[in-house]
UniProtKB/TrEMBL annotation:
Pathway assigned to this chain's UniProt record: Sulfur metabolism; hydrogen sulfide biosynthesis; sulfite from sulfate
Name of the gene: cysH
Enzymatic reactions: [thioredoxin]-disulfide + sulfite + AMP + 2 H(+) = adenosine 5'-phosphosulfate + [thioredoxin]-dithiol
Entries under NCBIfam families matching the protein: PRK02090.1 (NF002537)
Cofactor: [4Fe-4S] cluster
Protein name: Adenosine 5'-phosphosulfate reductase
Keyword annotations: Cytoplasm, Iron, Iron-sulfur, Metal-binding, Oxidoreductase
InterPro entries, A to Z: PAPS/APS_Rdtase, PAPS_reduct_dom, Rossmann-like_a/b/a_fold
Residues forming the catalytic site: C246 (nucleophile)
GO CC term (a single one): cytoplasm
UniProt binding sites for [4Fe-4S] cluster: C136, C137, C218, C221
Cofactor: how bound: Binds 1 [4Fe-4S] cluster per subunit.
Domain Phosphoadenosine phosphosulphate reductase: 51-224
Source organism of this protein record: Roseateles asaccharophilus
Annotated EC: 1.8.4.10
């Protein structure tokens, strides 16, 4: 990718896998797994058919999908195909359906909206301004997400407190602002926990994680990270914003963070 760094992370050797780099058994791991399972069981009991896992197909979400499958939980699994994802990301859809024998509902943006945006603004519009990048995200992510969540009463995400400074207060259960519950069942997990689980249960994961991409989005907007960079530094790396979000998680967006800092009413 343009702008990507090939610098290795601390402790990494050329060709090292993400498991070798990140997986570590830490104190309390089994308790955190048990806590997450209990949260999922409670969610099923409370929301029934109104519950959906909205998976980005990232490492965290693959752990959640494995827990759902491993324990036979009746949870609908859905994802967004933005039309700009890496082939390695899309490959996980078939892997989930083959490995776990679970269907994955795929939501795509409105074709004409994408064509119109690209024809008017160009293929590289996201690099030109924050407003255009967010407009692209709105078409490719937010609108399809609204259809995914139509009729749902709760959705499960892979948000973790450790992911970034503006996610440091992520709760296990929150209102998504649209009358639904957003369940962040891995909120207390560390990156080491995620990869220790993947290693322990041989969970499929995105091959791009082996190329120093801990946070993976659309291909034009994702690069590898270098030594000392933030977990999400590879997302929208050309922007100066401290808290970078696409809008899928509005309660942890840059707008809200700036509002809190300014002292203005939320």
């Amino acid at each position: 990718m343009s702008g990507a760094s090939s610098s290795l992370l601390p402790g990494a050797a050329a060709g090292a896998s993400a498991i070798a780099l990140y997986a570590r058994a830490t104190a309390g791991f089994e308790a955190r797994v048990a806590e997450t399972l209990e949260l999922l069981l409670q969610a099923v009991a409370t929301h029934g058919v109104g519950l959906v896992q909205s998976t980005s197909l990232g490492a965290e979400d693959m752990v959640i999908t494995d827990l759902i499958a491993r324990h036979g939980l009746p949870v609908r699994i859905a994802t967004l195909d933005t039309g700009a994802l890496h082939a390695e990301t899309l490959a996980l859809i078939d892997q989930i359906q083959t490995r776990y024998e679970l269907p994955v509902q795929v939501y795509t943006p409105v074709h004409d909206a994408v064509i119109n945006f690209v024809s008017v603004r160009g293929e590289r519009a996201m690099y030109e301004s924050l407003a255009l990048r967010k407009a692209c995200c709105a078409i490719r992510k937010l609108e399809p997400l609204s259809r995914m969540l139509n009729g749902a009463t709760a959705w499960i995400t892979g948000l973790r407190r450790e992911q970034s400074a503006n996610r440091a207060d992520v709760p296990f259960d929150e209102d998504d602002g649209q009358g639904r519950r957003k369940l962040n069942v891995l909120a207390a997990w560390s990156w080491a926990d995620v990869w220790h689980y993947i290693q322990t249960y041989q969970v499929p994961y995105n091959a791009l994680h082996d190329q120093f991409m801990p946070s993976i989005g659309c291909a034009p907007c994702t690069r590898a990270i270098a030594v000392g960079e933030d977990f999400r530094a590879g997302r929208w790396w050309w922007e100066d914003e401290n808290a970078k979000e696409c809008g899928l998680h509005k309660s942890h967006s840059n707008e809200e963070l700036n509002t809190k800092k300014s002292g203005a009413p939320a």
